[in-house]
Write a structure and sequence with these properties.
- By secondary structure, this protein is an alpha/beta fold.
- The chain is 54% helix and 13% strand.
- The protein contains 12 helices and 7 strands.
- It is globular and about 60 Å long.
Length: 338
């Protein structure tokens, strides 16, 4: 899917957000009554009402973030100073507020808890504050991605630079803020002439002690069908050993090492942090959320740090290193889902 140019997508997205928000607010008395009635016919406690409350929070956050983005653009001299440190900090602050608001709302409405195993992202002893970080995260839906971003912004107090799919620009807040901050939108299946690794290397090259580059090496959300396709592609390419390794991992897609290696070359002093989540694995779409609303659940996260000195420098060493961590990550998910 090709993302429309910004002069097409942005007016449509902004109009849609504010129109939906206005209609929802005006119709909220009727919608609340409808959600209460629907909840009686649905499993769980007040499922429809909780979802309506969370949807309202999401629309409110989007509307405020888009409005503030416009104010920042005007205050920066109609975009002239958007890349200055002052306005970069302001954009990170808005993102921090937006994510914290969404996650606090989800925790309260759905009675969720988040448990972190391994180093706490807020701990300077576990996550050294004097080095940049390369954060390699399992991709298991937008919920997990939001949790990782929130942890980096609010707990680790890092400035995340994100590598993410180009289709994420269809979200107004993502489109506005991450196109103004250091980020790289990529096509997970690039065509001829599209060089993903150069963009990732450029993103990692000037990282400082407060920066963290967030990469999802799988290239997309895990689903059983995507896992089967990945294994089939490896076999068709004659990579029998890699296909067998992918078959042995049941909960993750085989990692793609090219982008990770490019980031390591560009930021050789960065520590690597491997992050896994479980609890939101099966909620990649609105239909999934409706069918499997997470309620009264514990969402588990594991952070594991690999110091820069222990990361291999040759291509073979890095492929082996990444695969070993991904096998370990898969085994952890399997144990938590048992």
């Amino acid at each position: 899917m090709r993302v429309p140019p910004k002069w097409v997508r942005r007016p449509i997205a902004y109009l849609t957000i504010y129109l939906l928000f206005a209609i929802t607010v005006l119709a909220s008395p009727v919608l609340v009554i409808a959600a209460v009635i629907a909840s009686y016919r649905m499993p769980g406690r007040w499922r429809a009402l909780r979802l309506f409350g969370f949807a309202m929070t999401g629309l409110f956050v989007e509307a405020v973030a888009v409005l503030v983005a416009g104010i920042l653009w005007l205050a920066s001299g109609c975009g002239f100073a958007l890349r200055s440190p002052r306005f970069q900090r302001a954009h990170y602050a808005v993102l921090r507020w937006a994510l914290a608001t969404l996650i606090a709302s989800a925790k309260r409405l759905f009675h969720l808890e988040v448990e972190i195993e391994g180093p706490d992202p807020a701990s300077e002893a576990a996550l050294p504050p004097d080095r940049p970080m390369l954060v390699l995260c399992r991709h298991a839906g937008p919920g997990d991605s939001l949790l990782v971003m929130d942890a980096l912004l609010s707990q680790a107090r890092r400035r995340p630079r994100v590598v993410l799919k180009d289709t994420m620009q269809l979200d107004p807040t993502v489109d506005l803020y991450l196109n103004r901050l250091p980020a790289k939108f990529v096509n997970p299946n690039p065509g001829e002439g599209e060089n993903m690794t150069d963009g990732i290397a450029a993103l990692a090259r000037d990282m400082g002690r407060d920066d963290a580059l967030l990469i999802f090496p799988e290239g997309g959300n895990f689903t059983p069908k995507r896992r089967e396709r990945a294994i089939r592609r490896l076999r068709e390419a004659g990579r029998t050993e890699a296909a067998e390794l992918a078959m042995s991992m049941r909960h993750v897609l085989p990692p793609r090492p090219a982008g990770v290696s490019a980031a390591l070359d560009a930021a050789p002093t960065a520590d690597a942090v491997f992050v896994a989540h479980t609890g939101l694995d099966h909620m990649a779409t609105v239909a999934d959320i409706w069918a499997e609303l997470p309620q009264d659940k514990v969402l588990r996260s594991r952070w594991r740090v690999d110091a820069a000195e222990g990361i291999g420098r040759t291509e073979d060493e890095r492929v082996r290193w990444l695969n070993e961590h991904w096998i370990d990550l898969d085994e952890w998910i399997d144990a938590k889902n048992a």
